[in-house]
Design a protein that fits this description.
Elements (H helix, E strand, L loop, with lengths): L16 H10 L2 H9 E4 L6 E3 L9 E4 L1 H14 L2 H4 L7 H7 L8 H20 L3 E2 L2
């Protein structure tokens, strides 16, 4: 049922350049790999690598939301977590002009922070896997 929170899907591809700059500033290389490198988000104690190609690489990382969520939350805190909620209402560009804040400086980076944050929250909240292709 649309709008019931049972389905999470996003098909946009803004530039990730600013997002990677934020990752470098606030996360270790290993943390960045965990946050950005997963293809399947499912309840696990630690990440595992499968020798099955994904859309991004020759292997597939399967990781648990408890590993991804704190990393995404750290990035969200760095750019004003409150502004990120506007990404999924379609008001981000207009709001960035009237309500300034760190999140509005790079809307593409804010998009990816919101995407990874909401994916991990969705997986935790509903106890379901999320696939990133």
């Amino acid at each position: 049922m649309a709008g019931a929170g049972q389905v999470f899907e996003e098909k946009l591809r803004p530039s990730m350049e600013g997002f990677f700059v934020l990752c470098e500033a606030h996360l270790s290389r290993e943390e960045t790999e965990i946050l950005c490198g997963w293809s399947v988000l499912v309840r696990l104690a630690e990440e595992i690598w499968l020798s099955v190609g994904s859309g991004h690489s020759e292997s597939t990382m399967v990781v648990g939301p408890p590993q991804v969520l704190p990393l995404a939350e750290r990035l969200a805190a760095a750019v004003d977590n409150l502004g990120l909620s506007t990404w999924f209402t379609g008001r981000s560009r207009g709001l960035a002009q009237t309500r300034t804040g760190p999140w509005g400086g790079d809307l593409d980076a804010a998009f990816y922070i919101a995407l990874f944050l909401r994916a991990a929250q969705h997986s935790v909240r509903h106890g379901c896997p999320v696939v990133h292709t």
